[in-house]
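Form P-L/3: holo structure prediction, ligand adenosine-5'-tetraphosphate.
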Amino acid sequence: MKKQTLLSGIAPSGRLTLGNYLGAIRNWVARQDQYKCFFPLVDLHAVTVRQDPTTFADRCRDFVALYLACGVNPQTSVVFAQSHVAEHCELAWILQCYTQVGELNRMTQYKDKSRRNKGDMNAGLFSYPVLMAADIVLYKADLVPVGEDQRQHLELTRDVAGRFNGLFGDVFPIPEAYIPDSGARVMSLQDPTKKMSKSDTVAANVIALLDDPTDVARKIKRCVTDSGNEIVVREDKPGVSNLLNILAAVTETTTAALENEYVGQGYGRLKSDVADAVIALLEPIQARFSDLRSDELALDAMLAAGALEAGKTARRTVQEVHGALGFIPKSSRVGPRA
Ligand code: AQP
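OUTPUT (holo model):
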């Protein structure tokens, strides 16, 4: 039976965090044998905010090496840079013509980012969800593993794909989001009412996948907890809830089981257990990262092979879309110019 297709990507801005791992990458890896997987590094999304061109390529390679260090297998999954497959932009343009401005105005991430980027309200920030929709439907993805924050963008993708199909026939499958039960929303360590974000410039808010163990232990020890001493997941206890969620996700248990285990214990023990579990998770990833990252030629060659393969699928889809829209088919015969 033909495998279904899975696609998910991360924009190379800031530093990959524990939230990106638990909300996204871990769920890619768990499904890569079951699905035909595409894992683009979505670098075109990253330029919606200013990137330093002298360090951007290095950061992109760091991200790709981390994908692999976390367990993505480039032998079976297609790993590539979005900017190497021009069809992403081509399809994004077409889909923009089937997306309403009002729909984009409702995106909460856009509202949030436009508050944070007052000095640079570029059109890319606004149309970003359409590029994301194009990334997904270009490969006819059936499943998209993402964290909770991307649910709204996935809904928009489904709406736009459904609208296109309604007008032109069943061109795109309607993708499903896969949002994990635990780890879907890892929160900031110093402000647990906000999600942990890879472009957060305050290092104490974030556990980066490449943080060394001493930093991880220190950040968790100093993270914000709540008044009282009960160790439970509750709305009025965002700090403790976040630690329990992290521990549940990292040790693959439930927060209910942890609540039982920690009855009568103090925050100190919880923090030290979370730190130990996160360090144990990150150490092997960091060791693999340093091996993979040291061979830049091999990383670039892998990306080139990925782009070649992704490009074939992407071209086929764009041709199908052109056909559906009634564009002149490009002749394979080149004749004299009239
Ligand atoms: N805190 C989180 N908890 C669980 N999942 C998360 N994801 C992101 N943050 C969390 C998931 O990771 C994938 C990549 O998402 P992203 O590129 O939007 O990452 P980000 O950390 O949210 O990035 P920022 O800080 O908003 O930076 P910019 O704007 O520069 O990219 C997604 O699947 C997401 O759900």
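COMMENT: The longest strand covers residues 36-41.
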